[in-house]
Write a structure and sequence with these properties.
The chain is mainly α and about 90 residues long. The protein has one domain. It has three helices and two strands. The chain has a two-stranded antiparallel ribbon with strand order 1-2. Helix 2 crosses helix 3. The radius of gyration is 15 Å and the shape is globular.
């Protein structure tokens, strides 16, 4: 029973990730290297907290809190905005 609930929760979380809009993290003066380093550090933080990087709102919130602690703000990516590594 518990295993079925866990599998169902994972599937629901993955489905939620598919429908979530792309976020862009901005910090004045940050370079692409800064962003990549900080994103990596925050992914490591989530991995250490959970033992893995689970999909779902709670792990995304831990990641977002970490990015904010590094001075970033988030916003929705605009439909015509590319995710190029230029700032």
């Amino acid at each position: 029973m518990r295993r079925r609930m866990t599998v169902g929760l994972v599937i629901a979380c993955l489905a939620g990730c598919q429908s979530s809009p792309a976020m862009v993290w901005d910090r004045p003066g940050a370079t692409v290297d800064d962003l990549e380093r900080d994103e990596s550090a925050c992914r490591d933080f989530v991995r250490k907290t959970w033992g893995t990087i689970p999909a779902g709102p709670l792990s995304r919130e831990y990641f977002a809190d970490c990015m904010r602690s590094h001075g970033y703000t988030s916003r929705l990516r605009q439909p015509d905005e590319t995710l190029s590594p230029t700032r």
